[in-house]
Specification:
With 380 residues, the protein is an alpha+beta fold. It is 63% helix and 14% strand. The chain has eleven helices and five strands.
Amino acid sequence: MIMVNFKKRLKFYSFTIFALVFLPDVSFAQQIQNDYQGTYRGKVTEIQSEELREIPGTNTDHLYQTIKAEILDGPKKGEVITIENDYLELDKNDKFYFNYNIYIDGSVDYAVVNIDRRDSLILFGLLFVGAVVSFGGWQGVRSLVALGGSFVAIFYVLLPGLLQGWNPLLISLLVASGILAAAIFFTHGFNRESVVAYSGTMIAVFLTGILAIIAVHMSDLSGFASDESVYLNMNTDGLLDFTGLLLGAIIIGVLGVLDDVAVTQAAVVTELYDSNAKLSRREVYKRALRVGREHVGALVNTLVLAYTGVSLPLLLYFYMSPISFWSLVNSEVFATEIIRAIVGSIGLIMTVPIVTALSVFYLKGYKSKHSHNHSHGHVL
């Protein structure tokens, strides 16, 4: 299969919007035909039947089930309903989410939308917290609190600000500065070492932002690399700056590794000074930079592999397609991820000499009051 050209898809969505705006009768009919009542949880009590059916136009079979389920919440809690499910395979006692709709003729429809994963998410969340606290002690607790503060900043400052039309790049930089302050100062304490790490990281974030602006505009990236962007554009009446959103996403996405490198380099310089007070600034810089190179080498690989892992199904899809390599790389979906990984990696590389230089200059003679068992509170 060949990937649909984005501009053609955008024209299709534009026509759809035109139809909804200028054909109110059609829009009204669509609205009253499907009266969405809500999304609720259910539990499978019985699998009445299941069979494989061929998806029209393909040679692929898909499982079709008729199930009975007990409603677990909402106004119909406790009722047992019948659902025709062709979305995902369910077994007896599985919990899931479903949409409840009432049509204009009074008929009722229930549609499975997702499996209920709350129990597993809570379990692994607790395992994560336990691992961090058991290894990091009170510093691990502080890093978790800082991590929570990061999500508060994202959900209660960044996202509402973006929806209100604030400049995406500017608000991302402001939120990034707040997240870094919480991650560094709350986790590692307010001291000269943390100030150096924070200052160096913010310089690197600013330079990374400039590089991101240049890269995104030179590559002519629109920010519409996914269907979610198209839907969001429709739901916000086209008021959001998606190029700016892409720039903000690059900055927020690289914060965690920049924090990691900055704190580590400051700690390395402090330890070198503590181990031998006679070392010159030049010698400390050379030794710390050597450690930084090793660290960056591992983190760059981690960064690229993380982006690759997220895009693995998409990579497989294109691997099976007849599209040439350069046509594939040139598509906005892949070009966006390539630019994101490259800009993030360059920002990571810039952080090492910047923070190391600041540390060598300002931390000479500084005596750390805590052990450098740095369990970094990664932001994202």
